[in-house]
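If your schedule permits, I should be very grateful for your opinion on a structural question. Thank you for your consideration; the sequence and its tokens are set out here:

===
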Amino acid sequence: MNKKPSSTIMTRLGWGVFFLALVFLAFQVIPRALGQRDAGKRSVATSMNRPQSPTARENAPLPPPSADSVLNHRRSQPAGQGQSQPVPPPHQIDGIDCNSAPGIVIHDDGGIENGYSGNPTLVSEVRFVDKFTPGSYPASYSSVCLDFVILSGGPPTYPIDVVVYDDDGAGGSPGTLLGQLNGQTATTHLFTGGGQAPIWNSYDISSMGLNVTSGSVYIGTRYVPPSNNVFTSADESGSIGFAGGYWWNNFDGVWSPTQNAFGGYHSMFIRAVQVGGGGTPTPTPTPTPPTDALWYNGDYDGDATGNGLANEQDTFAPGFAHVFDDFIVADSGGWDITSVFSDNQVSTNIVSATWEIRQGMSAGNGGTLVASGSTDTPVITPTGRFGFGLPEFKVEVTGLSVHLDPGTYWLNVTPVDSLDGGRSFNSTTLGANCVGTPCGNDQNAFFDSPNLFGFFFEPTLNLCPQCGDFSMGVNGTVSGGGGGNLKLKAGARIADGTKLVRLHWKGATTDKVDIFRNDELLATTVNDGDAVDTLTERGIFVYKVCEEGSSNCSNTVEVRFRGP
């Protein structure tokens, strides 16, 4: 990499009195002190600072890391609504929790000591990036957190870009631009020094579809320095150059290690959430229910209306958090269960899984354990969906042989890790593509985590307003079901405002079958195993399939479309 003339490098300042020194340097820092400069030199960088002794900084309290049971906290949460423990820090802009989000990568120590920018008299574009190296491959990054500070008179908000570069530049420096979010609004705050806490801005970058298979990426910001400057916050406590950052400005036109211009640089206040690899800008969900589902509560309902609740064991700490949701065995002969599963938004390494089926559950009461177990070989399948940047996986326990008589049961399937610090959250659902009863619509779920989060069979709606129903299910066969081997499943979804019910059956031996809806003959159709019913109104609909002209019929399946 070419070195720039010494006129572009800031001379080091000593400790002393705080003042704003907008000398004609093309870089600017919040000035630490009066210091000796060659007044004839101009630099493109600028920083800001207030005096503080190193010992005071080292002893400054830092925000403690915290683990939360709810995946996403919304500012619209009603006043007085019960919430998991502990709650997010108060200085958090809308978005992820930049202190304890699953997979968050942190280089800084939580206390701001400086801020860096470009001198607006010389620079019309400045970039600051830190280096992020995944712990395993492939990997992706779903969210970025940035902090910006100002001096008195600086703008309270300012437009910035979020940028990600490959490490394929000269000597491993930033090279190919991998993704960018342009024109994002950043909230700034007044620099006071003394290791003050950041007020984070978080940005969802999952649309970039990053897929890191080797090496590192550089993540950060790009903006035009205004005349009343905006500074990217910096940590100057610790080893110089720790975060491997670079900076760029259009006056010099080359990437340079950040510490070359800002001698105290340890890291920028840039954090990023690492998730599993293979990111895609538009993940494609599987729109059909599982093949052999007797009950499936429905697909994740999406970030706009959905959420996730901790469903994990031995992830960030020893202990467990279990989400239970209810299902009804309505067939008179009962069900023979062959596998159970849950859909989870995951940033952890799943090494095993546990499962439980209970009856008689209520608030504060775990009811009766009917069946349970664990496996070291769970079947882990990506669904193609993402929740708040985390990829969703179906975690299934197979090889079961459990008979359930008619009745109401509660299911839990929990991913287990080996304390690698990741997280797992059971996806919420509103019942899309559901099978059986209930259909993602009865809000009768419970959360049990006495040792991690201090809850004992707590109704999940007490934890977050979106936490009513959860994506999970059971596979198997109907014991002595109607029509011998005639079995029916149904999936419901709304496509472009049209309500569709897909029916799938097997076991009929006649050339044609009769399809009944709410005990009325809907259609007689060829026995090809599939049919689609288009509905014009919402409500509860019960289906069955019979061999043509006979009473040899399948089990019944209930489908619900809620709302006005």
In short: The mean pLDDT is 79. Helices lie at 54-59, 258-261. Residues 50 and 203 are 29 Å apart (CA to CA). The two ends are 64 Å apart (CA to CA).
